[in-house]
Amino acid sequence: MSQIEITPQANPNKTAAKVKVHSPLYDFWRKFRKQKLALVAGVFVILLILVAIFGPIIAPYKPTAFDYSSVLEGPSAKHWAGTDAYGRDIFSRIIVGTRISLFVGFISVFIGAAGGTILGLISGFYGKWIDSLIMRICDILFAFPGIILAIGIIAILGPGLGNVIIAVSVFSIPSFARIVRSTTLSVKTTLYVEATRSMGAKSRRLIWKHIFPGTLSSIIVYFTMRIGNAILTAASLSFLGLGAQPPSPEWGAMLSDGRDYLSTAPQVAIFPGIAIFITVLVFNLLGDGLRDALDPKIKE
Amino acid sequence: MFSYFIKRLIGMIPILFVISIIIFLFVHLIPGDPARLVAGKDATMADIKLVRQELGLDKPLPEQYISYMTNLLHGNLGTSLRTKDPVSVMLAQRFMPTFWLSVWSLLWALVFGLLIGVISATKRNKWQDYSGMFAAVSGISLPSFWLGLMLIQIFSVQLGWLPTGGLDSWKSYILPSLTLGAGIAAVIARFTRSSLMDILKEDYVRTGRAKGLKERRVVWNHALKNAMIPVVTMTGLQFGFLLGGSVVVETVFSWPGLGRLLVDSVSYRDYPVIQAEMLLFSLKFLIINLGVDLIYGYLNPQIRYE
Amino acid sequence: MSKHLLEINQLKTYFFGDENVVPAVDGVTITINKGETVGIVGESGCGKSVTSLSIMRLLKHTSGKVVDGSISFEGKDLLSLSEREMRKIRGNDIAMIFQEPMTSLNPVHKIGRQIQEAIEWHLKYSKKKSMERTIDMLKLVGIPRAEEIVNEYPYQLSGGMRQRVMIAMAMACEPKLLIADEPTTALDVTIQAQILELMKDLKAKKETAIMLITHDLGVVAEMCDRVVVMYAGKVVEEGDIYTIFENPKHPYTRGLLKSTPKLHEKRDRLGSIPGNVPSPANLPKGCKFAPRCSQVMEACLEQEPVLKKLNDGQCRCWLYQSDSEKEGVKNDSSSLS
Amino acid sequence: MTAAPLVEVKNVKKFFPFKKGWFRSKQFVKAVDGVSFSIKEGETFGLVGESGCGKSTTGRMIMNLIQPTEGEVWFNGINLTELSPEQLRKKRRDFQMVFQDPYASLNPRLKVSDIIQEPMVIHGIKKEERIHRISELLETVGLHSEYADRYPHEFSGGQRQRIGIARALALNPKLIVADEPVSALDVSIQSQVVNLLQDLQDEFGLTYLFIAHDLSVIEHISHRIGVMYLGKLVEVANKDSLYEKPLHPYTQALISAVPIPNPRLKRERIVLKGDIPSPANPPSGCPFHTRCPKAFNRCKIEVPIMKKVYPDHVVACHLYD
Amino acid sequence: GSKGASGSKEGSGTSVKKKGKDITIAVQSNFISMDPQDTNDTQGYSAQKTMMEGLLGFDKNMKVIPVLAKSYKVSDDAKEFTFYLRKGIKFQDGTPFNAEAVKVNIDRVSNPANKLKRYSLFSLVKETKVINDYTVEVILKKPFGAMINNFAHPAGMMMSPKAIKKYGKDIGRHPVGTGPYEFVDWKQGDHLTVKKNPHYWRKGYPKLNSITFKPVPENGSRIDMLKTGEADFIYPVPTEEAKKINGKNGIEMISKPSIVVDYMSMNTMKKPFNNLKVRQAINYAINKPAFLKVVLNGYGQPLDSVLAPQVQFYSKQNVYKYDPEKAKKLLKEAGYGDGFTATLWGDNNSQAMKAMQFIQQQLGLVNIKVKVTPMESGTMDNKIWSVQNPKDADIQLYYGGWSPSTGDADWGIRPLLGGESFPPNSYNTAYYKNDKVDQLINQALQTADPKVRGEAYKKAQADIWKDAPWAFLATANTMFAKQSYLKGIYLLPDGSLDVNQAEIKN
Ligand SMILES: Nc1ncnc2c1ncn2[C@@H]1O[C@H](COP(=O)(O)OP(=O)(O)OP(=O)(O)O)[C@@H](O)[C@H]1O
Ligand SMILES: Nc1ncnc2c1ncn2[C@@H]1O[C@H](COP(=O)(O)OP(=O)(O)OP(=O)(O)O)[C@@H](O)[C@H]1O
Ligand SMILES: [Mg+2]
Ligand SMILES: [Mg+2]
């Protein structure tokens, strides 16, 4: 018989060179590239980031420049998004405000997500008293009404944008923790986690390498969803005098300003509203794309 | 299961105790002098002094805490510094409107959210998906005051069908609950979609199809229950927040609920009311979380509580 | 001979990946008659499951698509039925037992409910009656304490029990055609024996035709009337059971038989077919089996043979093609190995 | 081969608690109910038995994935049940498992290369070595090395199981608990894998606990075989003895039920009657008496104990007293 | 004096008709208490005034008028006040109104042990004597010239002595007075309803059957209620919307000058505001007409004294004309040619934020960099009033508003600018202390003689104006809107409502 038996020592040198493993990043990009909508959203996000960086340069007017001769004007060629009660150019304010809003929205949710994810993983994975402890802490955080928490945090740390970010992060920690915990609970029972445990994996590795990726898609979805929420929360904090100080053009604060002019000069609220909407939309679309690209089972 | 339930209920007692201490300290740490705020804008120092005595705020903090706790243990939540009403009566008055509003909002949100989520997940990347998700993103990013005022414009001012606010009849619930529900529906829709999309790839969904079941039945009966765990978590949270009362919606719709009471109490540093409300919120979250955990157990039989 | 119950003709089912097209099933022709049991054997990945999913039209939610060929069931063209008409057939006229017992049952529904559902749906039974039938079915497939098991969840059962549940589910509506994708793989022999008996019974009583996908040649020998051997998305040999076991034509079929361990047979090593199943993304040019074949010829590497009708079956191999097709590559099989 | 046993299982039991309804008291599924056996180094111990009789549970207890309710598991002279978690973790590289379910035991989010690497990463093997070994292992189990770049869901069942085997082999363990490793494989690959496992054993002196229900494979690969029924071992013998003169009626039934790949051969089968009893509520006396064609009165009352009938052949049956 | 009135009399749109005589009034916030002696919000008084009356009261222009008292007499030393009561008046619970009832009320509020919020208005009362059934005499501990206005203040409204006895501390939930309407029910946060008092002493009144007050905090919602007819009267009306709704759908918008002053105080004890030139420069640097236009949408007047024109003893001063050049010059003279940086504190409501941003921009033009810090009220209170020693005060600029609810100059000047009113005692956030002014304030309190008092306040106002401890900004108008069929309803300059003569004329 002329057949070749497959043995463990079969030409190790020859085959070793043949292994070609693409980096996960490459795979990810290859898949992400296929998601047209997410790509467009990604371009928008980059655009937003550019606007955030170069906002003050590209804005046609100074965002704080008052002009009492043109107060509460509707959109026109001169003022694309009209003017507010002080005659400030709303379009310029939105452009310049991108930085603050994006920063607050993104960073605060990021911190909240990071904290919440760690807590949720630990809680779901270890169970028992650690789970109870963490979940009870979350309960307490949940039970603290937002404003009280914010006032408290700012009272302890002092006012300022940085502390607003902390306050908003603290808001989102328990939500993330609970979401991550619940997915952890179901991923934990899978056979592949048991298989990895049987190899002698440390808990830390089990959590990060095997359970965490399983929770990632719900994290991403919630993350992108929270960004809009965070911008609005930060706005209400500025409104309490706890955040970005006037006249800095923070979107949420602009939106709240517009509340008084909703029927007389709707542009004051509508345009910042649209800015928030677009931001939330593109982050959501991007999140969906990321999620799909991270999911090995989807092939399209 | 039952003993688990009882255990959790008993477990709440020490938690509530700890929470009450945290709440007390936290509330007293917030800057602001209730005596001055309660006494009013043109009060004199003498007025303020009187108010402070009247409210017992002149005593040292530990003494105040002890009397707060003894009252609490006797089931006495104290009286409002501002209105001098018993706090329990105030909360009772405000709780039911908030509760029913929350329930209605949640119902709307579940109906719309699940519907949109399921349709989007099953019609992935078709126009139904895109419009569903567009609606959901709108729900997330639309400030509720805006939505509320728009609804009033349309349904009250233009069409004259529904009242602009207040709580007079069942009609009063419609607009505020829709406003509140929109954001939650959006969240539920997003979660349902993403979670359901995962589940639809599972083998047992294929088994359902192989049985010849209608796609609708496969999705709603077989896939959805599996997909509900993250959705239930979210919904529980949202219900909790709802029960706290939404300041914005209560303001827009002149709703006699807990949210406005809290804001008023905070701006007047009405300690007994703030403390009682926060204690109520804690209890409410504990109960909701317990409920959510029990629902987990129902949804995923493999998660067992012993 | 009566009309064929199922006729698969030149079926081609491809998967469309992001970079390549995977021809998982590439021109398969199978016929099954009423009451007949046809075994489909072949190496893992050769397209057996995809063929069965194509029949059931369950590829809709994957990247797979039937690109060519036809499937007719009782004269109806399954591929052109509406989804609604197809639903009436699924689970009722054609039932399927899936390969993966662990993931094919819904983890959050009770066992009983999952079986009952199909009975209620297709046979229009009442709740109570369908539950009774469910319990009967479970008992039939040898599930202990069936009355209790109906109220349990899949995770509480061992793999074998789950597979029996799957079988009970598939047989509950007494289908005309049962597609069994490795139905006894996870079972122990005593239960396997019971189930095989059960399937034989069903076949005898209801004239159920069975398409039995398996790699256990023992099961094939016991159950089947005819055998279709597949390799790399194609049928390589087809013949009645005795021919296949006693006079296998294709080198692949022969290899398979040699690889099968037999009871009381003392061998130091099992025979085996060397090499791997070619990856469907880059199949060899000529005969797909050529790289692993012990009787490979020049022609094998150049051109793919056709499925040729022989007097006792069909075979896709140059060894049996007519002289004019073979030309100069006759008889020197060993010279190339 | 005469050295001290590598694995010694001493009277292990595993009772899973379960509850019905909210108020009823706890009941137990006696998945494994007092099993003892030992495996010598370099030996293959085959474990056969009906589905649900506790084979996997026994395997998982040896792997220390679940704690025995009672009893001890000794490995290489160490009582695994007494080790600290960290000591146990380190020890784990010496015993690996191949799982019954090739679908759920591979992390769907990891590539094949990562799955196979995982045990090596866990036990701190250098990267170059790992890369080298991945392709070696893939070839070993009969997969193209280009598959390293794919995800498990892109494979058919048999292919996945080979990945699982490659993973178990990665650390050159002393013991492999193979829980029905070939039942999802087609014959040609099954024979390759069985041959492969045998080769590995010859070369590295590996020890196997080989769980299967295919008696012909078990016969081929095992040196000694244990037959389980309802959480208990009913017969342990070396291969030749077991297949030539099976003693326990259950073993006899098992062997007679194996399908023979010969369409003309119609054998006399011992068909077992009756339902398989529930492990939550096992019958009194001999657990098999409810289905045993040779049962007599004593079987219902008295639990048979293991007796040596031939050298290297023990059985728990009243017929041989 | 309705010089600033800008409401049109008749709506130009379709006129709307009303069925029945029950009206709904939408107000901004929740009521806190119905005990006038324990109330400190104007809105609470608006509701109470439907049910209760005082010995004296205010007319439309904040002039003191007799109500339950026919007339009164004040001793020269402003220590003894004698009231002659109307006869035949009964409280809504049937208790007769007489001197004894007055004594019960005044005793209650002037007793510190009762810890009532309005104690301070009556803290000087030494005793109340019943002279006969319809004559009472109130004797003060020391002269207090402004006392008559305190009696006219809604805190001086009379409650039934029987009810006080019956309900004790709970009287705030069960108001019983002599007013044209009697209490029906009150659900916190939802509504408060009063109905016609059939035994009201003034013949022909009231003309409505019932009034329901509803707290509607959202500006837009209040207007919508008016549009849908759910409300017949709303206040306040946001200035932004005022012009838009006026005249449509039978809605009338009415705006009248108030006694509320908008100002920005400057900490006169701290650099650079201890320099008069700096303070004057700031006054010159702010364009008041622009302030009115931007912040108040034109509904208001420039502030031309520390008091609003309708406050008793107001005296007009020469407005600091908008002159940025002069401001710059003054700053240069003061040594701040390159400007400086300062922080401006204020409330976080939208009107205050607007005002502060306006000031920020205006001062920016003269090189003063202002950092605006709007604060939640509790937090700000803490920052301002927890300071024990003036030297520790962090406050630099503070934007605020003040309404002297007694309508008298004393309450408009002393708490804000009196030398003894530094925080935490009172509201002198400018830390302004001018001995001469203090002396004048004191002098005015020693007598009830309007001439003497007027003279003193005139001088004081002039001195303060010169010292410029504030940037004098504006007095805002009161704003309300109603259905055109609703007549005889108006807001007093202090922002409280008078519904007693309201009627429906379709
Ligand atoms: N969803 C899918 N996406 C891409 N390729 C697939 C998919 N399902 C199956 N394939 C490919 O199609 C080919 C045939 O697969 P199939 O499952 O039919 O094999 P099989 O004969 O059933 O094997 P086994 O005996 O292992 O079950 C395989 O190469 C597999 O990789
Ligand atoms: N986690 C668990 N909780 C409760 N019961 C369990 C659990 N795992 C297994 N069992 C029960 O224990 C018994 C033995 O299960 P086990 O998986 O060991 O069987 P097995 O011999 O491996 O069967 P198979 O051949 O089907 O794999 C079964 O009755 C099963 O229902
Ligand atoms: Mg298959
Ligand atoms: Mg098993």
TrEMBL record, chain A:
What keywords are annotated for this sequence in UniProt? Cell membrane, Membrane, Transmembrane, Transmembrane helix, Transport
Against Gene3D superfamilies, the record matches this protein to: MetI-like
The record's section on Pfam families has:
BPD_transp_1, OppC_N
Q: Where in the cell is it found?
A: Cell membrane
Domain ABC transmembrane type-1: from-to ranges: 98-287
Domain of life (superkingdom): Bacteria
Q: What residues form the membrane-spanning segments?
A: 37-59, 100-125, 137-158, 164-180, 264-287
Annotated membrane topology is:
Multi-pass membrane protein
Function comment? Part of the ABC transporter complex GsiABCD involved in glutathione import. Probably responsible for the translocation of the substrate across the membrane.
Instruction: Spell out the family assignment given in the record's similarity comment.
Output: Belongs to the binding-protein-dependent transport system permease family.
Write down the PANTHER family for this protein, in alphabetical order.
GLUTATHIONE TRANSPORT SYSTEM PERMEASE PROTEIN GSID, OLIGOPEPTIDE TRANSPORT SYSTEM PERMEASE PROTEIN APPC
The protein here is known as: Glutathione transport system permease protein GsiD
Organism expressing this protein natively: Scopulibacillus cellulosilyticus
From TrEMBL, chain B:
Grouped into one coarse class, the protein's main location is membrane
The protein's UniProt keywords, in alphabetical order, are: Cell membrane, Ion transport, Membrane, Nickel, Nickel transport, Transmembrane, Transmembrane helix, Transport
Tell whether Transmembrane helix is among the UniProt keywords. Answer: yes
Q: Which residues cross the membrane?
A: 9-30, 99-121, 133-161, 173-191, 278-299
Any keyword Flavoprotein?
no
Where are the coiled-coil regions? none
Extract the InterPro entries matched here: BPD_transp_1_N (IPR045621), MetI-like (IPR000515), MetI-like_sf (IPR035906), Opp2B (IPR050045)
Q: What is this protein called?
A: Glutathione transport system permease protein GsiC
Q: Which family does it belong to?
A: Belongs to the binding-protein-dependent transport system permease family. OppBC subfamily.
Record text on subunit structure and interactions: The complex is composed of two ATP-binding proteins (NikD and NikE), two transmembrane proteins (NikB and NikC) and a solute-binding protein (NikA).
Q: What is the lineage of its organism?
A: Bacteria, Bacillati, Bacillota, Bacilli, Bacillales
Q: Where is the ABC transmembrane type-1 domain?
A: 95-292
Role description = Part of the ABC transporter complex GsiABCD involved in glutathione import. Probably responsible for the translocation of the substrate across the membrane.
Where does this protein reside within or beyond the cell?
Answer: Cell membrane
* Lineage top rank: taxon: Bacteria
Q: How does it sit in the membrane?
A: Multi-pass membrane protein
Encoding gene (name)? gsiC
UniProtKB/TrEMBL annotation, chain C:
InterPro entries on file: AAA+_ATPase, ABC_Ni/Peptide_Import, ABC_transporter-like_ATP-bd, ABC_transporter-like_CS, Oligopep_ABC_C, P-loop_NTPase
Residues in a coiled coil are: none
Q: Where is this chain's protein located in or outside the cell?
A: Cell membrane
Record's keyword annotation contains Zinc: no
Domain ABC transporter residue range list = 6-257
Q: Which SUPFAM superfamilies match?
A: P-loop containing nucleoside triphosphate hydrolases
Q: Does the keyword Transport apply?
A: yes
The organism sits in which domain of life? Bacteria
Q: Which UniProt keywords apply?
A: ATP-binding, Cell membrane, Membrane, Nucleotide-binding, Transport
Membrane topology designation: Peripheral membrane protein
Which molecular-function annotation in GO is an example for this chain? ATP binding
Family, similarity comment: Belongs to the ABC transporter superfamily.
Task: Quote the NCBIfam families the UniProt record gives.
Answer: oligo_HPY
The protein's name: ABC transporter ATP-binding protein
- Organism, per UniProt? Scopulibacillus cellulosilyticus
TrEMBL record, chain D:
Q: Does the keyword ATP-binding apply?
A: yes
The protein's UniProt keywords, in alphabetical order, are: ATP-binding, Nucleotide-binding, Transport
- What this protein is called in its record is ABC transporter ATP-binding protein
**InterPro entries from the xrefs?**
AAA+_ATPase, ABC_transp_ATP-bind, ABC_transporter-like_ATP-bd, ABC_transporter-like_CS, Oligopep_ABC_C, P-loop_NTPase
Q: Which SUPFAM superfamilies match?
A: P-loop containing nucleoside triphosphate hydrolases (SSF52540)
Task: Extract the Pfam families matched here.
Answer: ABC_tran, oligo_HPY
SMART domains assigned: AAA (SM00382)
Q: Which positions fall inside the ABC transporter domain? A: 7-255
Q: Origin, by domain of life?
A: Bacteria
Which molecular function term from Gene Ontology is one that the record holds?
ATP binding
Q: Answer yes or no on keyword Nucleotide-binding.
A: yes
The record's similarity note reads:
Belongs to the ABC transporter superfamily.
